[in-house]
């Protein structure tokens, strides 16, 4: 496709603030066709951006104007579910949730559950190393993928990993997970399937301060519990979600913690009792326990709908994705509150408390000139704060184009050079998803010029612009 | 008491010097796994003076330690807080260090349920082959900033970087643990492993050595309930059994012939190879002791089954230890090695696939 009206659907991913029309879009149906596209692009030095469902939140699948947008939407078949070996072999365009649905008749499921799991594809999950509520107990995508088959930009077919639990040589499978489409085009994925938990129960605990809720979260982990989900919402988000889904949340609370245990009935019973005691000991105003599956789903309905709920109370919102050590939670949330006042933009907080993955939602109105830029500047301040307290600029959404500047805060020139040399191992010409995930040193130097931190200049060896 | 000593500057200086001179360095810790990794070439560079737990916060489930720190000391510190390494690493001797544990990437019987070494790794500081000190990943559970260089270090045998510090996710120690045994053939054992592995029991071990052994762990009520469901006998010394499997002090490992490790999909049948078998990891790791089956037969059988084989302990030290990688993959390995170590000074020749 090359007509502008045909290309319009591909102009952005879920980070819709940035749009670029690609030169052309192609929708191959076979591996050989993908190979032919890549070989042609390689020989003609044309950039290629691979795209799944386009649900990414960091502009990782944003097209480049002079490049090819390679949609893998037609690679949507589940090739095999092997219950005895507890694995599924799927094409990259298969939706995350569809894998669990196909595995369900065998009592199995695929654990990583990004919030977009109804729509996002497994190829994109691998590219972004996606997470979700289950990560603390069941790991990220990288922990649940056994094998990936990909095409290099030169059209070479490579299989990384194996159907066992490891493979010979370097762990290149780990490098592919989260590589944001910079190293190859994924054409097949083998995922690990887990036994579906016999039962799951959820606690909903209300607190009169974010600090108390944060300490309760640390208390649950410190008590030796490993919840299947451990999530938190602040007052702003709580009220917005209650108005939206009417889950019966205690809207007067300053924060709510959701804590889910899953497994054998006896295990869940024991762990729920222990978690309830820990939450109460940390000053919970009330602790509710889901009595049945319907109530458990109701507890989660608000959390799962938090983003659209916040979307109803502001014309636009900008979702940040940083991870911090759990013990810095109260301090970081307090500082976010100060920054919110300083920038004059409200911020709602909903996050994976169990693994310290924050998702501050910055409320703004794009129709007011300069407000988007102010929201982005506030976002960068928050991510810088995450790095300062020992965290990272992205926990699960990826760097894409969105977090290139914050990457300059987290990494120094030698690390970035090492990233670039690793990229060159797979794609010497830099044709796969150019301009994403890893900033150039020049960009960091320019960014550092205006953001001198603690009096230290970043990349001092580079000439200033 | 672990000595707190940061030897980073010395180690990085030695690497830089070696890079400039183009002289290979043979990095080593306690030498407990040299039989597995090989000895490499060049001047010896010890990490043993680089010790200490840099950071440990039980409520964060994260530990960071310097590479020369004794593995036993790290495990003791974790145990004091009721925590442990989920991958149950083998020591293979009292000299086992933290760096060697990660560099060799070996995991014990708990691996299918607790994850492998690479699954636990969150971040690392390394010295690359240019003598640069680099930090990747971090100390938080979720981090997708940049390529995952940290996990790439697990199992790379120090050929891509000299490990200075490694941060890992640790796990709570289960409240209760029990082992159950069953008299059955290997075929029947495999059927049971497949069945029990698919129903969500609180498993932390499934192995067959002539008898099938199941290890269950978790809250006491759950372990007792699971034990009631599966039945079986209680062995006299379960800890000795699992330690024996992990450390290869189990009598199976002391026999004659080559010891092969096969990493396979758990349900496949690989009965065509001759020799004595021990099944671990619920079927995903099989040990073959044989004086009959040669390397070609073992490599081919493992590959046909969707996995791979490696000569773990060989009667003949010059024997081929790994099957060659496909040419494109082998070339990729060489380029990865060159990206981290362009002059080739780090543990030259240790990762046979990259050689």
Briefly, what is this?
By secondary structure, chain A is an alpha+beta fold. Chain A contains 16 helices and 19 strands.
Rg on CA atoms of chain A, Å:
22 Å
Number of strands of chain B: 16
Task: Please identify the structural class of chain A as seen in this structure.
Answer: alpha+beta
The helical percent of chain A reads 25-40%
**Order of secondary-structure elements of chain B:** HEHEEEHEHHHEEHEEEHEEHHEEEHEH
Helix residue percentage of chain B = 25-40%
> Looking at the structure, what is the overall shape of chain B?
globular
The greatest inter-chain interface is formed by: A-B, 96 and 88 residues
Q: Main sheet of chain B: which strands, in order across?
A: 3-4-8-6-7
What portion of residues of chain A belong to β-strands?
15-25%
Largest sheet, spatial ordering of strands of chain A: 14-11-13-12-17-19-15
Uncertain spans of chain B, ≥5 residues at pLDDT below 50? none
DSSP helical segment count of chain B: 12
Q: Which parts of chain A are unreliable, with pLDDT below 50 for 5 consecutive residues or more?
A: none
| Fraction of residues in β-strands of chain B | 15-25%
* H/I helix tally of chain A: 16
User: What is the terminal separation of chain A in angstroms?
Assistant: 39 Å
Distance between the termini of chain B: 40 Å
Assembly state (oligomeric): heterodimer
Shape call of chain A: globular
Structural class by secondary-structure content of chain B: alpha+beta
């Amino acid at each position: 496709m090359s007509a502008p009206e045909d290309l319009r659907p591909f102009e952005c991913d879920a980070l819709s603030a940035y749009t670029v029309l690609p030169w052309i879009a192609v929708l191959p149906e076979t591996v050989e066709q993908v190979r032919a596209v890549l070989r042609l692009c390689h020989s003609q030095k044309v950039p290629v951006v691979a795209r799944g469902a386009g649900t990414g939140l960091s502009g990782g699948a944003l097209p480049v104007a002079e490049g090819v947008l390679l949609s893998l939407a037609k690679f949507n078949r589940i090739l095999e579910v092997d219950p005895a070996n507890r694995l599924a072999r799927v094409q990259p365009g298969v939706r995350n949730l569809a894998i669990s649905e196909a595995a369900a008749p065998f009592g199995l499921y695929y654990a990583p559950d990004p919030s977009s799991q109804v729509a996002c594809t497994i190829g994109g999950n691998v590219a972004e190393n996606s997470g979700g509520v289950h990560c603390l107990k069941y790991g990220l995508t990288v922990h649940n993928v056994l094998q990936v088959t990909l095409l290099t930009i030169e059209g070479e077919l490579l299989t990384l990993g194996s159907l066992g639990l490891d493979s010979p040589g370097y762990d290149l499978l780990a490098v592919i997970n989260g590589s944001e489409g910079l190293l190859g085009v994924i054409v097949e994925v083998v995922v690990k399937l887990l036994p579906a938990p016999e039962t799951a129960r959820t606690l909903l605990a209300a607190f009169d301060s974010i600090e108390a809720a944060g300490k309760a979260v640390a208390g649950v982990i410190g008590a030796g519990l490993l919840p299947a989900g451990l999530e938190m919402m602040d007052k702003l988000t709580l009220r917005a979600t209650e108005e939206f889904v009417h889950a019966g949340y205690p809207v007067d609370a300053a924060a709510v913690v959701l804590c889910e245990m899953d497994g054998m009935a006896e295990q869940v019973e024991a762990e729920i009792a222990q978690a309830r005691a820990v939450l109460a000991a940390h000053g919970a105003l009330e602790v509710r326990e889901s009595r049945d599956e319907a109530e458990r789903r109701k507890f989660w309905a608000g959390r799962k709908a938090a983003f659209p709920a916040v979307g109803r109370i502001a014309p636009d919102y900008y979702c940040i994705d940083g991870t911090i050590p759990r013990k810095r939670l109260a301090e970081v949330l307090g500082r976010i509150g100060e920054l919110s006042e300083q920038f004059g933009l409200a911020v709602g907080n909903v996050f994976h408390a169990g693994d310290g993955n924050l998702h501050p939602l910055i409320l703004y109105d794009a129709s007011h000139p300069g407000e988007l830029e102010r929201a982005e500047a506030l976002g960068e301040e928050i991510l810088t704060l995450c790095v300062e307290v020992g965290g990272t600029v992205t926990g699960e959404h990826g760097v894409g184009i969105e977090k290139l500047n914050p990457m300059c805060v987290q990494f120094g020139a030698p690390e970035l050079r090492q990233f670039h040399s690793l990229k060159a191992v797979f794609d010497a010409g830099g044709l796969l998803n150019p301009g994403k995930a890893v900033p150039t040193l020049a960009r960091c130097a320019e960014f550092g010029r205006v953001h001198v931190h603690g009096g230290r200049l970043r990349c001092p060896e580079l000439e200033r612009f | 008491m672990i000595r707190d000593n940061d030897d980073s500057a010395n180690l990085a200086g030695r690497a830089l010097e070696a890079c400039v001179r183009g002289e290979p360095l043979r990095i080593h810790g306690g030498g407990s796994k040299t039989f597995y990794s090989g000895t490499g070439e060049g001047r010896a560079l010890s990490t043993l003076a680089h010790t200490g737990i840099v950071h440990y916060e039980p409520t964060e489930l994260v530990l960071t330690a310097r590479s020369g720190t004794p593995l036993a000391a790290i495990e003791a510190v974790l145990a004091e807080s009721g925590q442990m390494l989920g991958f149950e690493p083998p020591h293979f001797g009292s000299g086992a260090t933290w760096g060697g544990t990660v560099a060799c990437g070996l995991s014990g019987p708990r691996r299918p349920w607790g994850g492998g070494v690479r699954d636990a790794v969150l971040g690392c500081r390394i010295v690359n082959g240019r003598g640069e000190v680099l930090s990747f990943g971090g100390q938080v559970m979720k981090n997708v900033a940049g390529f995952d260089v940290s996990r790439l270090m697990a199992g790379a045998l120090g050929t891509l970087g000299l490990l200075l510090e490694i941060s890992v996710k640790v796990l709570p120690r289960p409240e209760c643990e029990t082992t159950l045994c069953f008299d059955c053939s290997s075929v029947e054992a495999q059927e049971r492993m497949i069945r029990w592995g698919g129903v969500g029991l609180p498993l932390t071990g499934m192995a067959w050595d002539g008898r099938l052994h199941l290890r269950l762990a978790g809250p006491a009520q759950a372990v007792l309930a699971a034990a009631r469901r599966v039945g079986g006998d209680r062995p006299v010394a379960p800890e000795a059994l699992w330690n024996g499997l992990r450390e290869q002090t189990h009598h199976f490992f002391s026999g004659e012939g080559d010891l092969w490790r096969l990493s396979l999909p758990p349900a496949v049948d690989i009965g065509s190879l001759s020799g004595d078998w021990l099944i671990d990891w619920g079927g995903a790791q099989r040990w073959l002791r044989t004086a009959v089956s040669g390397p070609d037969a073992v490599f081919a059988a493992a590959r046909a089954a969707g996995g791979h084989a490696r000569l773990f302990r060989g009667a003949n030290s010059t024997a081929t230890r790994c099957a060659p990688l496909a040419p494109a993959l082998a070339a990729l390995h060489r380029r990865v090695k060159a990206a981290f170590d362009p002059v080739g000074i780090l543990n030259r020749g240790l990762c046979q696939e990259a050689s």
